[in-house]
Amino acid sequence: MNKILVPVDFSDTSSNALLYAIQLFGESDLEITVLHTYGVQSTAALLMKNIDGVLEKDAKLEMDKLLNKFQKDFPDVVFSSKITKNSPISTIVALGDTGNFDFIVMGTKGASGLKEVFMGSVAGGVISKTSAPVIVVPDGHTFRPLKEIVFAVSDDPFSDDQVIEPLRRIAVEHQSKVKVLHIAEEKTPQIEKALQAIEDLNPSVDYAFGTGDTHTDLNDYLLRDFAGLLCLIRTKKGFIERLLNESVTLKQTFNSPIPLLILHD
Q: SS3 for 135?
């Protein structure tokens, strides 16, 4: 059974991420825990307590409405919910690192105001701290069959072949073609390591020799390639850092044209 953690803020974006998780993993043998965090900070303890009470009540109502809708539409999925008063990043990371979930699936934008804002700050913060595989779903993305998965790698892709098991799992389930992509100034023999680790998937390899702006070059490639999923490996000094620049501010958001699968080495 696939066990998925989906953080939500009850926005259309997070609901779309929940829908994507179901479409990606299928309704049978799927268990989804829907997580919502709430809380505000105030110098007035009584005011904070009162507002927290309102937020908790609203969250329970919204959660019931969300799960009732999805349970009706997808009766074979096992849904459970969790509502906590805490920081979204620390809560998502703590749950993801328990080993109880196969994937964390997140949207990249969300509601404003008193609700937590699911933008690059939350997604980037989770990715930088968790060891669990994370799938980031762009705002407004519509699921399409995963005929191809692009696996973008650096000069030294990863140290342990087990890191890419989540990629293999998705590729096998969807019978996806895997294309290993290297954005560089010249071809490098290290790419063969990535190919050997997934040779059972019969991967192809492609090189993109771009402008030196990795993020722009990658997105330009994806817009031409029409893949259904992009897989990146996050290492201490790896490819994903060059995309995020280790920024977890509200200004830092993902703008990939397709969902991202982030694995951790």
A: strand
Q: Which of 158, 35, 152, 160 is nearest to 101 (CA)?
A: 35
How is domain 2-137 classified at the CATH fold level? Rossmann fold (3.40.50)
pTM of the model: 0.85
β-pairing verdict for 78-85 and 30-38: parallel
d(CA 142, CA 34): 20
10 Å Cβ neighbour count for 68?
A: 11
Residues forming CATH 3.40.50.620 domain(s) in the chain: 2-137, 148-264
Q: What is the mean pLDDT for each group of 10 consecutive residues in the chain (265 residues)?
A: 94 94 94 88 50 82 96 97 92 95 86 42 82 91 92 75 92 94 69 80 81 68 82 70 43 64 88
For 148-264, which CATH class? alpha beta
Please state, in angstroms and rounded to a whole number, the distance separating the CA atoms of residues 167 and 131.
15
